[in-house]
Amino acid sequence: MITLEYEASPAEWARHHFAGTEMSDIRRVERVQTIAEAMALSPGQTLPQMFADRYDLKAAYNFFAHPEARPEQIQAGHRELVALAMREPGLYLCLEDTTEPSWPERDAIPGLGPVGGRKDRQIGFLLHSTLVVRAWEDETENTARRGAVEILGFADQQYHVRQAAPPGETRTQRQQRDRESQLWLRSTAALGPAPEDPVAEWRRVGDRGADIFESIVAYRTNGHTFTIRATQDRALVDPLSGQTCGYLFATMREQEAFPRVLELALRARPGQAARTAHLSLSAVLVHLRSPKAEWAHQEVLAVRVWEQTPPAGVEPLEWILLCSPEPPSFEAARKNCRYYATRWVVEEFHKGLKTGLKVEALQLATGPRLMAATAVMSVVALRLLDLREAARHTPDAPAAESHLNEVELQVLAAATHRELRTVREVTLALGRLGGHLNRKGDGLPGWQTLWRGWRRLQEMVIGFELAHKLHEFG
Known about the structure:
Blueprint: H1 10-18, H2 26-41, H3 47-50, H4 54-65, H5 71-74, H6 76-85, E1 90-99, E2 102-104, E3 113-115, E4 122-124, E5 126-135, E6 149-160, H7 171-176, H8 182-191, E7 200-206, H9 213-221, E8 225-229, E9 235-237, E10 244-247, H10 248-253, E11 261-266, E12 275-288, E13 298-307, E14 318-323, H11 330-342, H12 344-356, H13 367-393, H14 406-416, H15 423-433, H16 447-473
Parallel strand pairs: 1-7, 7-8
Antiparallel strand pairs: 1-5, 2-4, 3-4, 5-6, 8-14, 9-10, 11-12, 12-13, 13-14
Helix pairs in contact: 1-2, 2-13, 12-13, 12-16, 14-15, 14-16, 15-16
């Protein structure tokens, strides 16, 4: 089995993921490994804080400024590892979404474009990621929450600079410009056809931005299954007559719910307390009308997930999902509901990139340099994400199978006064360093808590190693 080595030491992990970086000079390949290791050891620190040696700091700046330091070349080896892993038997969820790393417009960084709303006065770029995870299906739980996954990495990552619309642009001219919807189609092209052997399933999972008819056609053409959230109230057609026979949203709201319901724990949000939602499911096969004559109408399994009796004063949850066609059943609806819930993993990646690694605090002079640094940071952000997933999937695995090396485990055990025997115990101890109280009902520590714990542990390890050297010389 292809391994992505997220549990290796930072140095070993960096060599594994970046040895295939496409550079004309081997010294630049070694440099990106040094940078990745430093970012993994000091997440969220500035570049000057990462490198005590002035030579290494200058070399990092020179690397990001080099013309070859483009994201696709930096991540070439990493993406190849992911592509090889996806050929093995398994269910692979390709979680796809876009985020917008941004900087104040007043900084006037060349190579960036407008992001956010018009009033935000921010510049940046669109980062469109296809994050691949290996999933394990569990048909025993009566819940809509996602299952544990194994983080593989990026099958594709696109860096798109939005261009301001020129004054007086016509609708035809706007359509001829490079549309952001093309990002989804380029991801499909980057993935290519799925393996002919059905034991390896590639399922595309996306939020409402993925509701693009042309993308659905491309999924089917390339043998990809899909679960995406509908955003457009598409016309439906009768497959025999080809005549319009209703619209998606009204049709779904007319369907009877299956007798069983699912539970979904919802986190607290501003103005809303944490609660458990009781979700009803329905499913029906429909044919979406094609917007263009050259495309065939598309048959999909439409799934509705909703609250029939939400608490007073709370907006009820509702998802309408467009899924690969299969006979409608409660299990099919439940399965697609959990696939869609897994999409939250890519949101956690965005949070780790911005909040954990502080990509928007980078102070580099041009857009291409910021993108090069983001390409390295993106892969680094997956290390801690995988640690949390390992605690969900294999909590009773030996502690040695966590991300931490022997020294880190020893220091963590001493700092928390605990014997660390399993991955779960390592995760809880690391969370404790980050402020997790581990009270009954708290569950596993979250992304930010683990990140804080990881940073504090690295500081302790540096102190431990310095003390050991002083003892040797003393």
